Amino acid sequence: MKVETAYEFSKVSDCQLFGNQLLALLEKEKILVAEDFYVYYYLIEVFSLLLSQNKKSKEILLHFQKNKSKVIKKDEDEVNAIYNLCQALLIIYKDLPKALTLVKDSLNLVKDKKETKIYAFLKYREGKLNAQKGNLNQSLSCFEECLVYGELLNSKQIVNNTLISIGEIYRLKGNLNKAVELYNDALINYQEKENMFGISQVFNNIGIVYFSKGDFNLALDFFDKSINYAKLVKFNYIIAESTYYLTKLHILLGKISKANEYLNDFKKLSKKERNKFLNFYAQLTEASILKEKKRFESQAKAISLLRSIIEKNEIYNEINIHAMLNLTEILLEELRIFNESKIIEELKIINAKLLKIAEMQISRSLLAEAYWLKGKINLIQLNFDEVQEDLLKAQEIAFSQGLDNLAQKISLEYDSIIREHKKWKAILNSDVSIKQRIEETQVDTLVSQMIQRVSYELETIEKDTPVMLLILNEYGIPLYSYNFSKEKYDSILFSGFLSALNSILKEVLATEGSIKQIEYHDYFLTFKNKEGIIFCYVFKGSSFSANKKMDNFVNNIVKFKELWNKLTSIPKTGKFFDKIEEKRIAELIQDSFLL
């Protein structure tokens, strides 16, 4: 099939030409096989994801729907799977959860046809959607399976796209060198086939890595190359993203006139193409330049553009996220100058919208960062209870999705705030200006890092020191305790622990699976509720490693059915662990907390 060859090598004009010819032939055919229907997938991928032409894609999908009934019976499942995937491609930006459901339904239809193109395409898309959600480990598993079938099918397109996507997972996990290595593997293959789409995408992705690392000159070089290749094939998405980052880079390097040159070229392209995606990105790029001009007139225009994007853009969530973060940056500067409560209220409204997008798209990395940002905004107002709740939630979300690099950064901030509680109390009781509070919280640094898509690398940090593990029933009555130290704690200290437990017990019971944490004297107490059994780990040091250990222990004890059944029966029977059971649970504790 000529259209497949054109798609494989990303020759878009040929793909469109052969595709349209084939669509005309399909109208005349009375009986069709599954192979005939791949043309719809190739064309929708080209028009929707590469050229951002949703209207044309919808026309092709209607054509598909009309011809679906012509397929021979044995190919029905495969064709329905292709159709669902085409539907998913059209709603990726608008309704990610529904897109993922369509992909999973399709995988179920072709579960017995794994060595087919549609199965590989579906596994690839499942991986991409999970990456957008922040489920990085699940996403990586999908891509690794897709890579196997891509090689079996001898499809360079599938293999190269998958290598890029695996590289993106490593970038998000903070392993930037591994990401660049995978991007370069794909680049070699794309250059051999003169695949301009692939080359421009790889250059864009490598540019983002160097931008995140702060190596601005290398980033400039790669984004420039990316745009040049993308323009050859009208790859609008990459043109838009690379131009946005190029203007950001030139602003950071103090070259506003150069940033304006890129903006003017971009605005001309947007006007010529009459494309909503390009138009919104052009407005976003213009606003990012205007906000750097510290004159009130420029700032006001930037605010107006950003608010307009957020209000009118109902499809492209990624653009809205950038708009909200840029608007947050401007409002923080205004807050420094004017100290008006209504500015903080608007910051909270924007943050709530960010959280809504993250929850709607089920994007866990964004959700974690948005809660982190929420915590910092609450810290400006010195709302300590909310700060702790937000940061713990952010850390838990990041940790649960394997984003250890992000979870570690949030954990370090949480520990720092707890340890500097006296400093923050002094700020609360004194007349410290909003400007000083913003500087102390470093909220503007976080916003800047979110805009720059900074990937945090894992650091070697202080580990926790275990003190005690308590297992309690829902009323706070101890069912089991383990002392990690030979040091004996006096009854006053122990009763204080129990009082601290009781103060948080209701909250812990109300949120099963979540980790809660409080400070008591020189200790931290971390809690987790599992089916009404409360685990309390008392420690000193890093909450990041402590929470990982706690999570590991709870998961392990649940796997030991005999121990878990006995533990959950103690509140009903009053029969505690015997010596053999105590030995087993002690070994499990040592494996989880001391290794």
TrEMBL record:
It holds the Pfam family TPR_8. Keywords: Cytoplasm, Repeat, TPR repeat. TPR repeats lie at residues 200-233. InterPro entries: Bac_ResReg_Asp_Phosphatase, TPR-like_helical_dom_sf, TPR_rpt. One of its GO terms (cellular component) is cytoplasm. It comes from the Archaea. It is found in: Cytoplasm. The keyword RNA-binding does not apply. PROSITE patterns: TPR. This is MalT-like TPR region domain-containing protein. It comes from Candidatus Heimdallarchaeum endolithica.
